[in-house]
Every structure is written in structure tokens, then in C-alpha cells.
Task: structure prediction
Amino acid sequence: MTHSMAEKLPEVRASTGNCRFCGAPLRHVFVDLGMSPPCESYISFEQLNHVEPFYPLCAYVCEQCCLVQLQDYISPQEIFSHYAYFSSYSTSWLTHAKDYVAMITRRLGLSAGSRVVEIASNDGYLLQYFKERGIPCLGIEPAANVAEAAKTKGIPTHVAFFGRETAQRLRDDVGPADLLLGNNVLAHVPAINDFVGGMKILLAPGGTITMEFPHMARLIEGNQFDTIYHEHFSYLSLGVVEKIFAHHGLNVFDVDEIWTHGGSLRIYASHSGPEEPAKTKNFLAVRADEEARQLNRLTGYAGFASQVVETKFQILDCLIALRRKGKAIAGYGAPGKGNTLLNYCGIRTDMLDYTVDRNPFKHNKYLPGTHIPIYPPEKIAETKPDYVFILPWNFKDEIVKQLAFIREWGGKFIVPIPQVEVIG
Ligand SMILES: [Zn+2]
Result:
């Protein structure tokens, strides 16, 4: 989708605070999705008539550094100390991890004499592949229950939130890291300066950092407003990350564009200084593309808010028209992003009868805010809905294939993002 450059950013309507990187006052709204409950707080039958906390889901863009960010209403301790997400449940994510380990081992020439440290190592889904190759590794993971799962796989895991203090302690006790990596963690830390400052401390001289995070350019282009939720404190471009790293004495020099989470970046960084690697062709191309999209100034962020409102209207038009014809509509999936979309659009059981999910932790629970019930996937074959509304749209091809049997009774799919699409 394109948007008019002449369009202005929406006005700020609440007290906002300061940019978590550069400290400038936040004066510009990127998009305001209203009030929303924390997206991983699935609720039980008993909790249905209790009060639920809702927090503002409003993303700001900093006029100084262009970092798009939420304010931190919920602490990472509340969100991540006892996390229900185990990376090893996702087969495609495991394949992604395995491929990465093969690639980076070759590229850096890692061996039994190297040390790999992963920040937010979850259940050891990735480090297990370094262990297989006999490369010493250490995980850092704040959720004690998830870290326990890694330890039973024989992967040493330090239970802590990462920052300068943890980095200094590990450097003293274990030594610095030749490869320091973190996937989908940079966007999840409120204290981004303490986090990147910690990486500077833990990285060995001549060592390499790699980090993966969803790409801001894809978020705007793909209308992915539902990837905004309270657990994601920052929304990152290559240009912004380069700036943050440089401030802490780290040099981002290369980048891969990868398919995960609707389009992500994997960056490569080293210590800054005379020995630093030169910026690669890939790096320069991605940064030039961001500049062409004006992501290095406020104008690149204008127009997204009205694009989001238009998408909401389209989704509601579609669902209301089908409901007026008496059609049965079921959801597929109960991902965090689904909760942003459903709460923002005001979709409840009036429009979506129920949803299903493969994760047994979510069965017989209800979605936060909208209270849509969650069942095992078999429910779809039992009730034969006319339409299946796909919430994790980034896996739509996989899901359409898996549920091909709904065509036996004339069932169709609805994909809400980037634009409403009905697949027959
Ligand atoms: Zn800033």
C-alpha cells in the first residue's frame, strides 16, 4: 500500500514521556490502536466475569532518531518471568534455527575453541544445534520454567534478564562471546540502551553479534498493524538499529532479509574501530531502500494510521455482510497478533463464533478482551463453518493447505492482512 507524503501524523492526546533511546520528548503518534489487554493473558472460564486490565496501545515515533516505540506500561518481569511460549513447538522455527547454525558456523569458522552466547535462548531450540557440533554455548533466559526445559537438553542456561550487569558478571565468570546472538529479543526490551550496552561488554575482541527482528519497512508496506502489542516495545529499521549500536561502540556492517514474522532483518555487528569490517553491499542496499521510503524522517511514518483505519473498515464490512447472510465464521489460531486485531476492530463472538489453536495450553481458555473461546483444531471439522478467519496470516499458505478439507462443505478462508482476501 502507498500513502500520501502530504499526510500528517496524528496528534498526541496523552502524556507521553521520552524516547527510550535518545531521550527526546515523544510528540508524534505513529498509530493509536486504543486500549488493549496484554496479548498473552488468555483467560479461564472462572475469570470471565472478573475485571481485566487494558493498557493504551499507542505507538509513537521519535522526531530525533525515528525509533517507533510503545511506552512500557507492563514490566518485562510481568511478561517474561513465567512465559508460556516454547520455541520448540514450531517446526518451521526449528528448521530456521538449524539452518542459521550451519550458516554462521561456516561463516565465522566456529569450533570447539569458540564460545557462543544466546540472549533469550528460550528452551534451547537453537543452541542444541551448536551443542551437536561440539561448540561450547551458553543461554541467557529470563523465564525460569522455559530455562529448565533447556537444561534438561543439556544446554547450560543462566536465568536472568540481559543488560550491563548480567553481561559483566558473565564476562567475569565465563569469558567473552565470539558469537553473541539474539532472535526476537531486541524489540522486546524496554531498556534498549542497557541491553545494547551489555552486548558491548560481553562481545570478545573480533567477535560477531547477530540479531533478528521484524523489519519496520515490511510492517508499513504490509499493513501489519497487528504485530503491535505490549510485549513489543520497539519497532525497528536498519537505520535506527545502526544508530543505537554506534552509540554503544558497535558497528552494524551486514544484513540478511529473512521471511520470519512477515519479513525480518538479521543484522551482523562487530566492535567499532579501525579493525571494523566494511559495510557490505546488502547493508547499503537495505539502508538506501529505507531512505527511499523516508524511514529516516517523520514523513515516512505519516499515513500509516489512516491506512490502518481503512483496513479495520474493510474487515468489518466483510464480516458484517457475511453475518447478515447468516454465515458461520470460525477463527484459526490464537496468536498475540490476533488479539491486537480483534480488540482494535471490536470483533467478538457476535462475528467470530470461536477460534482454534494447536497449543494445548490455550484450549478451553478465552481470548483476552474479546472473550472468544479457544478449542482444539478438530472443532472445525465438527462444526463445518462457512468461513475460517486466519489470524496468523504469516502462515496462511500452510494453514490453507492443512485445512483444505473445509472445501468439502464449500468452506472458504478469510485472510485479513495486508488486505481482506477471501480464498475459495
Ligand atoms: Zn529518539
Q: What stands out?
A: The chain has a mean pLDDT of 93.
